[in-house]
Specification:
366 residues, mainly alpha
């Protein structure tokens, strides 16, 4: 009887944990979508993207440090090697400065919805990068490789459709068809259309940089498994590097770029970009430990859906049917890649448990 009651109690605890994880991940994606829309508002007011990166990165490092100390202090090495410092510098330069600058430029020239959809390319691009560096098995005769290639191609097709079947003129109109979008793009002004394409190229370039950085992160985590520490340290380093870049390129330091950016908006960057995003990251890391990276990755498209709703409600930015089709293609490709990797990991589980090689891409999908 006591054993049965204990099993029932454990079952209730497991159910509550499942509800907490699923509900929490859904909430995290909604919160992140809100921050993307808030960032778009800042850029529309004339905020300097480099200054936004500096403030947000410094705040993220400050808010995330207590979590890193509490959860990962015992994993810190007694001596920091030069290799680790070099890896952290590259992650900071690519993941904070380059990636965020490209993404912010992309948001500024397109819409928050397009920007939040592009990162769904990441698993496919990570597969390509990892295969090039021989961190991921690539066998043309293997069904898993073929499926991941197919998923990546579908993702890229969706990104192309999103880029070319949406234009600045259609983002404020809810009745645009793909044909009308192309015609409007040609008549609404070439400069706007080229800016749109440039923004999409910035987003794709940003996601590509993110894929490269993620491969480096996975290699770094293999030697020092402390993801929160890595995020905090690289965010602080990235904020410092970005401040130097702003000083060199623009001759100014920590200048928000517009008098419209008052103290309230700066506080919003600190609280949302640092505290809220930091808490979301800490929760996602905890979920990674409980459920694995594949499970967490499945919730990525929720952010795009929430961003689309918020953009339509607050900014009057509406996607064309062509771009909606592109997003559906991108989501389909994403889930093909994730489903394939899930099956591949299941097939290799016995080998990994038997002391096989470190599965780098398992960390890559985090």
């Amino acid at each position: 009887m006591l054993r049965r009651q204990g099993e029932e109690g454990q079952g209730r605890i497991n159910l509550l944990e499942e509800v907490l994880i699923v509900g929490g991940l859904l909430l995290v994606q909604c919160v992140l979508s809100g921050y993307v829309v808030f960032t778009d508002h800042l850029l529309a007011l004339g905020a300097d993207p480099l200054a936004v990166i500096v403030v947000g990165g410094a705040a993220y490092a400050a808010f995330g440090l207590p979590f890193a100390v509490a959860l990962e202090r015992k994993r810190w090495p007694s001596k920091v090697s030069g290799t680790l410092v070099a890896q952290y510098l590259l992650i900071a330069l690519g993941g904070t400065t380059a990636f965020q600058e490209l993404m912010l430029l992309g948001i500024k020239k397109t819409t928050p919805t397009i920007a939040s959809a592009m990162p769904n390319l990441s698993p496919g691009l990570i597969f390509i990068v990892a295969a090039c560096f021989r961190l991921e098995r690539f066998d043309k005769a293997c069904k898993y490789t073929q499926a991941k290639i197919a998923g990546t191609v579908v993702c890229l097709a969706g990104a192309v459709a999103m880029s070319f079947l949406q234009s600045p003129s259609s983002s404020s109109s809810s009745s645009s068809s793909p044909t009308a979008v192309v015609e409007a793009a040609g008549s609404a002004g070439g400069d706007d259309y080229y800016d749109w394409i440039l923004g999409c190229c910035c987003l794709v370039a940003g996601v590509t940089v993110f894929a490269l950085v993620t491969v480096l992160q996975a290699a770094t985590l293999a030697s020092l498994p402390a993801p929160l520490t890595m995020c905090c340290v690289t965010s602080a380093m990235g904020a410092a590097l970005t401040a130097v870049v702003q000083l060199v390129l623009e001759g100014r330091f920590l200048d928000m770029g517009s008098p419209n950016i008052d103290a309230t908006l700066v506080a919003g960057i600190v609280v949302l970009g640092g505290g809220v995003v930091g808490a979301c990251t800490a929760f996602q890391v905890w979920c990674l430990g409980r459920k694995g990276p594949l499970f967490v990755s499945v919730f990525g498209p929720v952010q795009t859906v929430c961003t689309a709703i918020l953009s339509a409600a607050l900014l009057r930015q509406v996607l064309s049917l062509g771009s909606l089709a592109g997003i559906v293609l991108m989501f389909s490709g994403l889930y093909i890649v994730l489903w394939t990797k899930s099956n591949e990991i299941s097939a290799d589980e016995d080998q990994l448990q038997g002391g096989g090689a470190h599965d780098t891409e398992k960390a890559l999908l985090a």
